[in-house]
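User: Can you recover a sequence for this backbone? Please restate the input before giving your answer.

Assistant: Of course. Working from this structure:
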């Protein structure tokens, strides 16, 4: 899918999840220096999400960026949905349901031991 004109178009990947369990990927061709907002507004596959654009967080390669961020070749634009449940509350509920402590994996302490 192409968006914009230019001598050397760039390829970007757009990834979003409109609802839990539904992840969508689109590869787009765009002009050099196009902003995230311009790209999202011109993408027909993303049109159903446009009314909520101002309330969504947008990232490039896992780092939150503003809508005015210019894109580079092979960037991966990620659209994050708002959390529906507080992570701490979800953890408490899992503990309550299981009745036992949930052990999470942590990085080992830097050379420290528990002796």
């Amino acid at each position: 899918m192409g968006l914009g004109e230019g001598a050397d178009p760039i390829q970007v990947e757009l990834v979003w999840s409109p609802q839990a369990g539904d992840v969508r990927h689109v590869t787009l061709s765009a002009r050099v220096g196009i902003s995230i907002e311009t790209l999202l507004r011109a993408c027909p596959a993303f049109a159903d999400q446009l009314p909520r654009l101002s309330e969504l967080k947008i990232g490039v390669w896992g780092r939150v960026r503003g809508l005015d961020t210019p894109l580079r070749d092979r960037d991966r634009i990620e659209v994050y949905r708002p959390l529906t449940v507080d992570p701490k509350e979800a953890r408490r509920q899992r503990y309550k349901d299981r009745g036992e402590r949930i052990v999470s994996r942590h990085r080992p302490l830097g050379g420290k031991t528990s002796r």
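That completes the design. The longest helix spans residues 87-98.
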